[in-house]
Amino acid sequence: MKNWPKMLLCSAALLPFSVHAAVDIKLAEEISPIVVNGDEVGIRINKLSDVTLDNGTHQLVVRVSKLVMGQSGYEKFNSNPLVLTFSANNQNLTLAPDKSINTLAEAKAFDAEPKLTLTDVST
């Protein structure tokens, strides 16, 4: 019985320790996820601003939604859905529009030529 703690310690040392590898994505405030890897996100009370995925290839469908300044005050801008396919391993990423969208003219320019930037901020 005296060897019980030593045996337990040795057994625990032999067990494989797996580190959960993941990809974390921080979404810009104006980006709303619609579908993540084929699973619909659905309507939420609190906007989903962080997504954690396993390592590998992924597909996100997102929309840019924001109040922008129009000619007679603020207007709601909702972009068409945008599909992103990417591969990542053990990274912290941010996803944001390539340019600032604050006015109706900037929103129309984004709609005509949408560009998002996926940046690795792991370092």
Task: Give an overview of the whole structure.
Belongs to the UPF0319 family. By secondary structure, this protein is an alpha+beta fold. The chain has one domain. 16% of the residues lie in helices and 47% in strands. It has helices spanning 4-14, 104-112, and strands spanning 22-27, 31-36, 39-40, 50-54, 56-70, 73-78, 82-88, 92-97, 116-120. The strands form two sheets. Strands 2, 3, 5, 6 and 7 form a five-stranded antiparallel β-sheet that branches. Strands 4-1-8-9 form a four-stranded mixed β-sheet, with no helix packed on it. Residues 7-18 have low confidence and may be disordered.
Brief characterization of the structure:
By secondary structure, the chain is α+β, with helices and mostly antiparallel strands. It has one domain. It contains 2 helices and 9 strands; from the N terminus they run αββββββββαβ.
Strand content: over 45%
Order of helix and strand elements from N to C terminus = HEEEEEEEEHE
Multimer state: single chain
**Radius of gyration, taken over Cα atoms and rounded to an integer in Å:** 22 Å
Mean pLDDT: 85
Termini distance? 49 Å
Helix content: 10-25%
Number of domains: 1
Q: What's the shape?
A: elongated
Strand runs, count: 9
The computed structural class is: alpha+beta
Low-confidence stretches: 7-18
Number of helices: 2
Biggest beta-sheet profile: 5 strands, antiparallel
Protein name: DUF2057 domain-containing protein
Pfam families: DUF2057
Keywords: Signal
InterPro entries: UPF0319 (IPR018635)
